[in-house]
Amino acid sequence: MSTLNKELVKEVIAFMRKYPFDVEMAHWLGADGASISSCGTTGCIAGIACFLTDEKKPETLNQFAKNRTTLDEAIYDIPSRAKKLLRLEYSDNVFQEAEWPYPFDSQMHDARMDYMMARDCQEKSKLRKKMTNITIARLEHLLEHGE
Questions:
Q1: Which residues does 75 contact at the CB level (< 8 Å), separation at least 6?
Q2: What one-character DSSP code corresponds to residue 76?
Q3: What is the DSSP letter of 60?
Q4: pLDDT digits (tens, 9 = 90+) for 24-71
Q5: What's the CA gap between 35 and 12, in Å, rounded?
């Protein structure tokens, strides 16, 4: 397989920095956390990579999600398309947080557990940003080390 598409990885990182509440690694695209996302939809690394390169140029993740017409397209097309777009040899260690290298896997696990236990919106917001920052750190590690 060809080398990592570093430019697209950098674009995904820039998007995540600009819209930290639009990032959710638990699904490709969805409404989880929609009350605090900028557009009512969140996405993971794969979903955001596909959104940023979509030929229809949707303005928001929500518009991009609405363009996915079938469940199969949302579930299967996004990860396989993102793998090709990012030119990844093996995508589970990028798209699946449980497969991330240490320490990113345990950091995300701990942050996600804290998020589930958090009771107020302010604490949940802080933890959402923390999870986005862990995701960004994971991508920066990919850029630097290729893994």
A1: 28
A2: I
A3: S
A4: 888 777 655 444 555 555 788 998 998 899 887 777 776 777 666 555
A5: 22
Report the chain's terminal Cα–Cα distance, integer Å.
14
Is the distance from CB of 65 to CB of 41 less than 8 angstroms?
yes
Residue 29 pairs in a beta bridge with 43
pLDDT of residue 40: 52
Q: Report which of 2, 20, 24 is spatially closest to residue 85, judged by C-alpha positions.
A: 2
To the question of pTM greater than 0.90 for the whole model, the response is: no
Query: Which tokens in the block code for residue 99?
Result: 């497969």
| Residue from 109, 82, 99 nearest 8 by CA | 82
Beta strands, E only, the chain: 29-30, 42-43
Please give the residue that has the higher pLDDT: either 63 or 80: 80
CB within 8 Å of 97: residues ≥ 6 apart: 25, 104, 105, 108, 109, 112, 135, 138
Can you give the C-alpha Rg of the chain in angstroms?
A: 14
Q: Confirm if 106 and 99 have CB atoms less than 8 A apart.
A: no
70, 56, 63: which is closest to 40 by C-alpha?
A: 63
